[in-house]
Design the sequence.
């Protein structure tokens, strides 16, 4: 499935861009593909939202799904 | 409430009016952290007429705060933020009650403090406080208006408030456990666009007013991310995460056993190394003790109030240190660094430990310049 990945906060320093395209069939395989392409992501904590809905377990993708990678912010 | 000219723009506002204004007057809101987020939250809630406002902060105003913490001026440098903010707000609106809580919110005091208020605003700047506040609000079922910033982006959410179907979520549904220090670089080092916490703080104040008055749709079970550079926001829906409850303390007893500083640092809370200018500010901080770890009789003698315990005797005399912050200095900065490590190993996350870089020599140079 062709997906749009949106990176937020300090994750863009690793991905180099706020938005990129990737192929994956489900969330688990996307995560593995992201770690392969950007090994430093393994060291970061982030939540995953698919089409603006937080996911807390693996799920299959539809083509053109939008996947957001959201790290925690602490500053105030 | 009489027809009060002060609130005429609220009273005339369609959909707002006297009923909403009275709800604000009766509300009790606690703002934890009077920094970049807290300043605008406090200003707007005080101006809007929230009847009782608590300000919890144990920090002092430093020069680098003035880039974004708009309640303070150069006259406030070295003074306690909670105290200065309270004074300013009383002049803005003498008709409301302002309570300054000069304390770091921790497991020993959080539940008692938070239970005195109806609604909590998290304006802190570190994960330890954020998880501690979230868990407290979970246990006490208090609405929590959360915001946090990173460089040019901000996050906003409302937690522990049920939506129309009765569902409510927590910060831990989003991030069940805190990141290790290496997983999320801190804001002090990463910098922040000064206006950004201002915007996020005003959005927090807006959510507070919506929750109190029942106006509009508060950001319940959602996380909004605002990007100042693109002027875009992105809002996701949060659903319960099975991992959240696993990591949340079950009751007050379990809460009191939590070590948030430790959890959030991956085992070691950082010792802050400060320069001579910052050191000067802590001299007037009543929650801090200045500790000289040199041998007795070493020159120059310190001409300001301090406690002296030579490094080699420190281990035996730790019980003399009862303040929340310990500011250590020596001749060159080496022994104070060793002392800070010793103190941190003993006190863990329960105290803030600072070490003066360059020792008393740097202080003298700073004064001479």
Sequence:
């Amino acid at each position: 499935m062709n997906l749009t990945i949106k990176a937020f906060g300090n994750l863009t320093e690793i991905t180099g861009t706020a938005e990129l395209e990737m192929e994956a069939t489900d969330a688990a395989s996307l995560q593995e593909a992201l770690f392969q392409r950007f090994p430093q992501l393994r060291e970061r904590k982030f939540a995953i939202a698919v089409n603006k809905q937080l996911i807390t377990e693996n799920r299959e993708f539809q083509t053109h799904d939008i996947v957001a990678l959201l790290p925690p912010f602490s500053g105030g | 409430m009489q027809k009060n000219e002060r609130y005429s723009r609220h009273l005339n506002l369609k959909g707002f009016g006297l009923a909403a204004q009275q709800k604000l007057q009766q509300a009790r809101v606690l703002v934890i952290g009077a920094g970049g987020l807290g300043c605008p939250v406090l200003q707007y809630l005080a101006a809007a007429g929230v009847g009782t406002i608590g300000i919890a902060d144990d920090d002092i105003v430093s020069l680098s705060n003035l880039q974004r913490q708009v309640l303070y001026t150069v006259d406030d440098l070295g003074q306690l933020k909670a105290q200065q903010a309270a004074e300013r707000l009383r002049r803005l609106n003498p008709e409301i009650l302002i309570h300054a809580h000069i304390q770091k919110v921790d497991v020993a005091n959080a539940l008692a403090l938070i239970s005195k208020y109806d609604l909590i605003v998290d304006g802190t700047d570190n994960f330890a406080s954020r998880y501690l506040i979230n868990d407290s609000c979970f246990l006490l079922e208090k609405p929590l208006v959360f915001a946090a910033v990173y460089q040019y982006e901000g996050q906003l959410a409302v937690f522990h408030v049920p939506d129309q179907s009765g569902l409510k979520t927590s910060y831990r549904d989003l991030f069940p456990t805190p990141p290790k220090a290496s997983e999320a670089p801190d804001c002090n080092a990463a910098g922040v666009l000064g206006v950004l916490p201002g915007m996020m703080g005003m959005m927090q104040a807006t959510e507070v007013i919506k929750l109190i008055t029942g106006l509009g749709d508060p950001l319940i079970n959602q996380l909004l991310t605002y990007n100042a550079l693109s002027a875009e926001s992105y809002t996701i829906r949060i659903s319960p995460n099975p991992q959240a409850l696993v990591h949340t303390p079950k009751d007050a007893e379990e809460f009191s056993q939590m070590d948030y500083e430790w959890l959030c640092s991956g085992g070691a809370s950082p010792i802050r190394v400060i320069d001579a200018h910052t050191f000067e500010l802590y001299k007037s901080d009543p929650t801090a003790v200045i500790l000289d770890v040199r041998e007795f009789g070493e020159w120059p003698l310190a001409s300001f109030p301090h406690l002296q315990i030579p490094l080699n005797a420190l281990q035996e005399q730790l019980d003399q240190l009862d303040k929340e912050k310990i500011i250590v200095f020596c001749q060159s900065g080496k022994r104070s660094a060793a002392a800070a490590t010793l103190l941190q190993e003993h006190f863990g996350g329960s105290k803030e430990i600072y070490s003066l870089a360059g020792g008393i020599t740097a202080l003298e140079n700073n004064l001479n310049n």
